[in-house]
Write a structure and sequence with these properties.
This protein is an alpha/beta fold. Helix content is about 45%, strand content about 15%.
Amino acid sequence: MAQKGDLLTFRPDIKVVDATVRDGGLVNDFYFSDDFVKNLYKANVKAGIDYMEFGYRADKEMFDEDKFGKWKFSSDDAIREIVGDNNTNLKLCIMADVGRCDYKEDIHEKSESPVDLIRIATYVNTMPMALDMIDDAYKKGYETTCNIMAISNAKESDIAAALEMLGKSPVDGIYIVDSYGSIFPEQIRRISEQYMEVGEKYNKFIGIHAHNNQQLAFANTIESCTQGVSYLDATMGGMGRGAGNCAMELLIGFLKNPKYKLYPVIKFVESNIVPLRNEGLEWGFDIPYMLTGHLNQHPRAAIAAMKEGRRDYSGFYKEIIDKD
């Protein structure tokens, strides 16, 4: 597949999705202040970002509301408290996790909700439920995407089958997700080609959500972009689970669309992300995350090690090698 655009060209098909509250919420159990979320909303509007993801629509029967901030559940009312009528060009989205969302009850008709896009997260082995969730959201009037997680641990034949199933569904877009931060740009190039073939066959856009375990979230995002991937996830200051995500400030600085403005992003990071770090919240590249990415493992062991303040990197390495 030929490269789409170059470093100097503007691609009108590109959309930037801010995932700070959703992926960043995995750092602090979604306990963001209303001021933080309002400031982020305003910064996204000023910066020309296309979508803002508010968090998960988690099932309150499964997750204790007393143990999480409200963006674990991202109710329509909570979102309205931030955005009002949202008379802006910024669209709003939430994530619905297969098996963790009572979507029939908790995702209301689009006409009753400020949300524009429902992002369904699934593994290849839960595709039937994902397809039902897509169909439900589509019938309720929403835009929809499907994020196939942990593809680095899935069989190629299973991914191909899942893509065909999604191609035949009413989903609007399909996401490449490097859940473990283990994929290299050369691999992303081939994966992007595979997804783009299905996208072009069935008229679906393709997106990417990258993790930074090997310092490659930004590199993988822009590599996929050159192959035609058009929906690009990023977070302010790279805030996200474990090693974090593609940094919004890097992405906006790279893209050539004149509607994107870097200054509001830099200002938000300075005024809102730096204080979180000063309060002791930790995310971003560190050796334990690098090691789980290198071994194509879920970062949970690295997250636990970091919370314990471990710096015995060699000991940690031997422990996770034994698990591999």
